[in-house]
Amino acid sequence: MKDFPYTESKDTRSGFGVGLHELGKTNPNVVALTADLTGSLKMDAFKKDFPERFFQVGIAEANMMGLAAGMTIGGKIPFTGTFANFSTGRVYDQIRQSIAYSGKNVKICASHAGVTLGEDGATHQILEDVGMMKMLPHMCVINPCDFNQTKAATIAIADYEGPVYLRFGRPVVPNFTPADQKFEIGKAVMLNEGADVSIFATGHLVWKAILAGHILAEKGIDVEIINIHTIKPLDAQAILTSARKTRCVVTAEEHQMNGGLGDSVAQLLAREEPLPLEMVAVNDSFGESGTPDQLMEKYGLMENDIVKAVEKVLARKAK
Amino acid sequence: MSQDASLSQHSTSAPSAPQAPKSIAELKQIAAQVRRDIVRMVHAVNSGHPGGSLGCTDLLVALYFRIMKHDPSFQMDGKGEDLFFLSNGHISPVLYSVLARAGYFPVSELSTFRKLNSRLQGHPATHEHLPGIRIASGSLGQGLSVATGTAQAKKLNGDDRRVYVLMGDGELEEGQVWEAAMYAPHHKVDNLIAIVDRNGQQIDGSTDEIGGLGNLRAKFEAFGWRVLEADGNQFETLLPALEEANSLCGQGVPVMLLMDTQMGYGVDFMMGSHKWHGVAPNDEQLEKALQQLMVETYGDY
């Protein structure tokens, strides 16, 4: 099991803020909108340096999505910023009609996804957003794992023509991916090659998968860990190649089991290569108030939960 | 009836250049032809929304044949053009007819309305790349936001043309309309002209009975709009109102035109009720309607 050294921990939303500010400097068509959450989305630097391209919409997310769709007519590349809950469930029909069906080049950037939003509780902890967004035809869905990757993804989606859902979060997590990485939409990242089991993780669960990998290595289990930062389009080739080698699979995500990464991988395996699969995800439940760590533990999203899932799937694996 | 090449396009011809503004007499002839198109389109598929389409015919004819600077060769970005958005997408028949008659696509294509594999979807969509359509609409309440965004993009681009958006009066019951209504004046979006089709009707009955829209002038003025009112079925009152709306642009406030129309205008038995909101005429009713919509110059698709 490889080591993944890092010098600091950072929040992924700050990666978005830095990436957006970079885009402000390099791409004059990039505009940014927020629904009264400039600071939470780390959009302050963009606002300060590019005030004419920054739009404070107020607490009116439906209007924000419509405005963003309209701004694409004339060649702008709008990045909307609010919490994941208000970026998806609250405005699903606006996204569906004015953005996705209309094929508009809007980047829906969503922070505070999942239970790691913490103390605010279940009203704000959306765990269904990936499912809603991936069901929309031609919607690209990206969930990067750390600061550097979120920054790189933010910059990359400006060059992609079409609607994108970019999901990130609030907690501080190890910043271990390369600062100079080139983010390729739809291309899974091999983190650790192994022979016994494939772990496909996304977002904050990628680091948990690495921690699980070390625990499992001590038990003599050789894990393959792949970072699925793009849930749609799914890198089917990378997933199938790995699964055909290890013959059993665990998925890990901070999302409902229904509609998430595990659901996408299960569909792929069922069609192409039926193999034992265990999912680490929230199982048909809302979240609640608590610290991020307490909630990750209560809802079964820690490294130990991945270890248990691996042991379970190994027991099911054909001998 | 004969085909007039300056108005309607044959299926093989290339899109025309923008046409010279029409006189009121010509506009009335075009409006009658558009109304013929509307009732024939909805009759052909026994579905669609004739009432609001007939009521807004004069507005769309005025915009596309007199008021707006626009190019039927159609570029999505519409730079240097006036743009129109239809928020109440269910009145697609009038938009399709006017776009075809203005040269955006062949008039013959109107016969595909609401049929399988058509570019003329039940509600307007960009998905099939129909020239003249820049956003999908039909799920109500979204068009004012979209138009406001496009108007702001025009400002960023240094484009001095205007953005028009039409909404139904029943549509004002959607909350998003008021989000946008609060936003546009606050952000001084003064290249935006919103128009409400105040026909007083919605699917389940009158707007007074269903929604209680109240004093719309007072409401929009309180939100910071310049508000105009006009009869939307008389070019003699509608054209000056649209020209006044244009002249009020550039003064730091968006403009709202409350346009009184009659649902079903031009076909006597379709007027004055919500009954024809979403019902197509039968064969006999079609004949009766067409007899009331005689056109000297132009021709049916």
From TrEMBL, chain A:
<dbReference type="InterPro" id="IPR051157">
    <property type="entry name" value="PDH/Transketolase"/>
</dbReference>
<feature type="domain" description="Transketolase-like pyrimidine-binding">
    <location>
        <begin position="10"/>
        <end position="175"/>
    </location>
</feature>
<dbReference type="Pfam" id="PF02780">
    <property type="entry name" value="Transketolase_C"/>
</dbReference>
<dbReference type="InterPro" id="IPR033248">
    <property type="entry name" value="Transketolase_C"/>
</dbReference>
<dbReference type="InterPro" id="IPR005475">
    <property type="entry name" value="Transketolase-like_Pyr-bd"/>
</dbReference>
<dbReference type="InterPro" id="IPR029061">
    <property type="entry name" value="THDP-binding"/>
</dbReference>
<keyword id="KW-0786">Thiamine pyrophosphate</keyword>
<dbReference type="Pfam" id="PF02779">
    <property type="entry name" value="Transket_pyr"/>
</dbReference>
<comment type="similarity">
    <text>Belongs to the transketolase family.</text>
</comment>
<dbReference type="InterPro" id="IPR009014">
    <property type="entry name" value="Transketo_C/PFOR_II"/>
</dbReference>
<protein>
    <submittedName>
        <fullName>Transketolase family protein</fullName>
    </submittedName>
</protein>
UniProtKB/TrEMBL annotation, chain B:
<feature type="compositionally biased region" description="Polar residues">
    <location>
        <begin position="1"/>
        <end position="16"/>
    </location>
</feature>
<feature type="region of interest" description="Disordered">
    <location>
        <begin position="1"/>
        <end position="22"/>
    </location>
</feature>
<feature type="domain" description="Transketolase N-terminal">
    <location>
        <begin position="29"/>
        <end position="293"/>
    </location>
</feature>
<keyword id="KW-0786">Thiamine pyrophosphate</keyword>
<dbReference type="InterPro" id="IPR029061">
    <property type="entry name" value="THDP-binding"/>
</dbReference>
<dbReference type="InterPro" id="IPR005474">
    <property type="entry name" value="Transketolase_N"/>
</dbReference>
<protein>
    <submittedName>
        <fullName>Transketolase</fullName>
    </submittedName>
</protein>
<dbReference type="Pfam" id="PF00456">
    <property type="entry name" value="Transketolase_N"/>
</dbReference>
<comment type="similarity">
    <text>Belongs to the transketolase family.</text>
</comment>
